[in-house]
Amino acid sequence: MTLVQVQPRSTHDTAVGRMVAEAMDTAGPQVCDDMTVEVALSVMASARTGHLLVCDGGGLCIGLVTHAQLTAARDGSAYSDRVQLRDILGDRGPFTSPVTTMAEAAHMMHHSRLDALPVVDEDGSALGVLALAR
């Protein structure tokens, strides 16, 4: 799991720089990693969202899957109706913390070419999603 770490900041720095907690959206739809791609696409369409938070059997956030990822997996030559989200997610993360500054999160998203980033607490539970404005 890749978690963006931040160093404690002075009161002045915190007042000037917005934190992720101030800008994130609520967690939204969370699905289990054993869900199939087809069902996830259906959930995504019903929720009218471009991404889903994926959790393991213990309820911990293990990543985020996008419509583009699901579509690419479904259209791939190795696809079957048994492909689960855990099969296409790969490594855990990246994630960010609610106390990360927006500047740090924006840098990470730009560097990693991400449109959305899960926000998790210190235990790995999903708190929300930081998404680029469209």
Automatic annotation (TrEMBL):
Gene3D superfamilies: CBS-domain
Bilayer-crossing regions: none
Keywords of this entry: CBS domain
First and last residue of the signal peptide: none
CBS domain: residues covered: 24-72, 95-130
SUPFAM superfamilies in UniProt: CBS-domain pair
Name under which the protein is recorded: CBS domain-containing protein
Lineage: Bacteria, Bacillati, Actinomycetota, Actinomycetes, Kitasatosporales
